[in-house]
Amino acid sequence: MREQVSILDGNTFLVSDRRGDIEPSQDFPTGLFSFDTRFLSTWVLTVDGERLHPLSTDDAFSYRTRFFLVPGAPTHYLDAKVSVIRSRSIGGSFAEELTVLNHSGRQVEFVVRVAMGADFADLFEIKQARRKKGLATATPGENELRFTYRREGFHRETVVGSSATATVDPAGMTFRVCVDPHGEWTTRLDVATVIYGARGEDVRANLPLGAEPRSVAEIQAEHEEIVARAPKLGCDCEPLAGAYLRSLNDLAALRYESIALGVRLMAAGLPWFMTLFGRDSIFTSLQMLPFLPDLVPPTITMLAGLQGFRIDDFRDEEPGKILHELRYGETAGFEEQPHSPYYGSADSTPLFVILLDEYERWTGDTALVRQLEVPARGALEWIDAYGDLLGTGYVWYRTRNPETGLANQCWKDSWDAISYSDGRLPGFPRATCETQGYAYDAKLRGARLARTVWNDPAYAERLEREAAELKERFNRDFWLPDREYYALALDPDGQPVDALSSNIGHLLWSGIVDADKAGPVAAHLLGPRLFSGWGVRTLADDQGRYNPIGYHVGTVWPFDNAIIAWGLWRYGFREEAGRICEGILSASRHFGGRLPEAFAGYERDLTDYPVEYPTACSPQAWSAGTPLLLLRVMLGLEPQGEHLIIDPAVPAGMGRVELLDIPGRWGLVDALGRSRTASDPVRR
Amino acid sequence: MTGATTEATERFFATLPARAPAVLRGPVRGTLQLRITTGNHSEHWRVEMAPGSARVTRETGPADAYWFGSADLFDQLVTGRAHGISSMLRNESTFTGDVVLFLAFRRFFPTRPGTRDPRAVAREQTGRPA
């Protein structure tokens, strides 16, 4: 189904075609990447001058792939006298074992060649098709080919070594081999990526977590350990069981070691977003909390450490603001892109406070909450200070970097995501509805932390009063009484941007929705305009800009749906939440348990299977976190004081759902749920 | 550049103890050793940071973190014309040791000259009272 095959370990990843070849691509990130730099852009195998054809590909593991290949076109490979196995793995560096098998009864000579090249493109140069400013060279050595890139002090190297004797030229390696009857020939190609620091050493050598690239065995052991540590799921529903396991493995694979920070952080998604994002890492952490709470503190701590402290127009930075995106490549270093880090996100700051509170509610780790009191207060201050750009009591955004900044600074950050119902685009600044919900929730959660941990009841009361005022104001200014839903945003004149969107579901999660308005909101979310049968569309299908394959204007995002299901549960709409759980989990079955970033908004009845969004990232952290949050919603898991409340409402047809050893301040607890109908068929 | 630390750099270090209560508010603690070079000449600064306090000396010795870069770059950092993390990513400066100390230290770097409060700009442009 997918044309590309990817393997990854943290933010080192490789994307190739189904033969295992990499050909230079100007617009899609094919190649070997590490820390936002492409270290291999060409990697093409030929035997006797012929390209190979894939018989099969074994890509069951995120860090290892095997390709079984034969020369020539598909029409004449049935009587192949030769076949090739490429077995590759990734773990800090990249290694490929190349085996040529002679199936004939006589000795055969082959010319095996791997064309190699490294363009050292920065990920953003691929997005925008820019040319390199520095100098790249290729230096052949003895069974070694070294690619070097320099721009001022910026210095990267790719070193390819072969275990078998090779004839090396600047564009690759050639092997003239003689293989016995029914025999084989093998070489191992090791590709090292080097990021030089000022004193000529690999900067990663100084990282606290260790310099050596991890071996495949170590990666495997770590993944197995993470999966073993997570609660055990027993259930009748196979899509759920498959998605759960796949998610745990993908979340393990997406952890990366920050080059500058020496901690394991969570990358957002392959291939475009293999780095730390404020919003993505916070949502993923919220989803993971009931399952793997100890993976969360490094993310919270690093977001706090990189909190904005001054006004920087290029980076959309302000004091107290939580980052949007951190990159490590050349364009960030030379300030051609603002990601060092970039702060263009209106919601990551309130979300940061929400995560800190939710983390404490699950783990009871008050030490971290005390340690982060200053950044948490700074974040809460930002909401009313720099967040309220126009002084109207709402969080607004408008980039101060029109060239490389983001126009939309909410989770729907593509250029056309925020529109009026008729498709017109509002001016700036904009105040999107869900951000106001997060601000409301952040104030209430901040109040709880102030009262229970920071010992500041006066501050708690102030925050609660501000939250109540915000809720009242919001329900007056955003509610569209004749249509019975909340506007997507306010425009610069304070007028509603009246599109019907999935954002209203996040409002339920935040609790900012007045009780009498929750029913109509739920009805819209599960109504025919928004609900596709698989999930809630980002934009209703009768809106001006609706497009079933438009990134934020009609597709279904699994993460979005998980938050909406959480919101429906919060307001007591268990049956509606269950329909979303059922739809998204059924969809996951069509992606081998791995929910992509987004899929098309077509009616479920129309296609019978979910159509993948053409350039969706996969794995994507907050999509991998989605089955986890859906499990929490179905089992009704909610910390209350030192206890975990378990209040299951398993959708009809799902049968038994059993989650054992849920970690938290209560120790380990089991939860068991079962759908009501006794005669449920077992789902396959 | 003659090899001497720039006036802006001298002034910057001189103000750290007084600014520390406002800047170092979290539970940060440790010593940062800076080596600021011009050609073959190096100047050493040592900053001992603790919650609310910064002690600055010209000593050298073991530290929890080390920063290396040119006098020219450092002058730009302390006058808001360069960015600490970007300069590290392009390898114009190097850092080793406890990164939390650098993240705390960079908060002493000022805003770029001429930067306006974004609220004032936005309210002006939408015709609202500042």
Automatic annotation (TrEMBL), chain A:
SUPFAM superfamilies named in the record: Six-hairpin glycosidases (SSF48208)
Putative glycogen debranching enzyme N-terminal domain residues: 8-189
Residue span, Mannosylglycerate hydrolase MGH1-like glycoside hydrolase domain: 386-588
A Pfam family this chain is assigned to: MGH1-like_GH
Gene Ontology biological process terms from the UniProt entry: carbohydrate metabolic process
Protein's name in the database: Glycogen debranching enzyme (Alpha-1,6-glucosidase)
TrEMBL record, chain B:
InterPro entries recorded: SCP2_sterol-bd_dom_sf
Protein name per UniProt: SCP-2 sterol transfer family protein
